[in-house]
Amino acid sequence: MLALLAVVSAFVSYERMEFNMKYGPIPAGSAVMEVRREVDGEYLATSEAVSNKFFSLFFPVDDRMESLMDVEGFPKRFEKVTREGRHRSHHKAVFLQDEGKIISDGDTLSVRGPVQDPLSIFYYLRLRPLKVDTTFSLYTFTDGKLYPLKVKVVGKERVRVKAGTFDCFVLVPSRTAGGLLKRGRMKVWLSDDERRLLVKMRSELAIGHISAELVRYEREE
Predict the structure, then answer these.
(1) pLDDT tens string 54-92
(2) ∠ CA 16-11-98, rounded to 5°
(3) Are strands 164-175 and 186-191 parallel, antiparallel or unpaired?
(4) Residue 29, beta-bridge partner list
(5) Would you call 140 helix, strand, or coil by DSSP?
(6) Are the C-beta atoms of 18 and 216 separated by less than 8 Å?
(7) Beta bridge pairs of residue 83
(8) Which DSSP symbol is given to 38?
């Protein structure tokens, strides 16, 4: 497995990616994703999405996630704090991958096979060799629930964003049984190079869409 991961270097000693977020054509806020290598060889990833002053007048957002992962991108610990409009939630989970268990908010869930969280899944996919028409089948755990998920590499596109112009793989995730991620409602663009930068995301909503585009990045090997 580690030999396969050698083709990409999504995990470095430190990485920071900054994004502009829009609701349709309207600037909505900003997001940051960071990952750093810990002293024990694990990786700590964090993400933060915050609405701007204008958008906060209608729908304030302040979402934060943290995931502690092993070298292959599998989570060991996850925490998610959500503040969206009037909604507030705070979830924690411990992943005992070798034992097939997840401990979350006082409950223990038995699972078969490795499981991802909403943040670690990005790093898991960035570490994998990508090829058009490849499909990844996996499970994600979020908000106390386990979801089957399929992610298909549907094609390649050249994308121009503030951070530059990138040749990208286009990935489409879809939950196989209900949930928000219905088929084709979300797309992710990852750079077609050893960095596998998250260049762009777009999610279709009931009304309109929300997108995030890379504006700058920093990497320390």
Answers:
(1) 999 999 999 999 999 999 999 999 999 999 999 999 999
(2) 125
(3) antiparallel
(4) 21, 51
(5) strand
(6) yes
(7) 88
(8) -
Task: Report the C-alpha gap between 10 and 176 in whole angstroms.
Answer: 27
Q: How far is CA 186 from CA 18, 127, 131, 161, 203, in A?
A: 19, 20, 19, 18, 4
Closest CA to 189 of 157, 165, 163, 217: 157
Residue indicated by tokens 């990409």: 8
Distance of CA 143 to the CA centre of its chain: 15
- Return d(Cα 189, Cα 200) in angstroms, integer: 5
Instruction: Find residue 132's DSSP bridge partners.
Output: none
pTM of the predicted model as reported, rounded to 2 decimal places: 0.89
In sequence order, the β-bridge partners of residue 219 are 15
Strand partners, 147: 140
Q: What are phi and psi of 50, to 5 degrees?
A: -135, 130
Cα–Cα distance between 111 and 77 in angstroms, integer?
Answer: 15
In single-letter form, the type of residue at position 190 comes to: L
pLDDT, mean of residues 11-24? 94
DSSP, residue by residue, 169-193: EEEEEEESSSSS--TTSEEEEEESS
127-166 pLDDT, tens per residue? 999 999 999 999 999 888 898 999 999 999 999 999 999 9
| Placement of tokens 């005992």 in the chain | 96
Taking the domains of the chain in order of start, what are their residue ranges?
2-213
SS3 content of the chain, % helix, strand, coil (to 5): 10, 60, 35
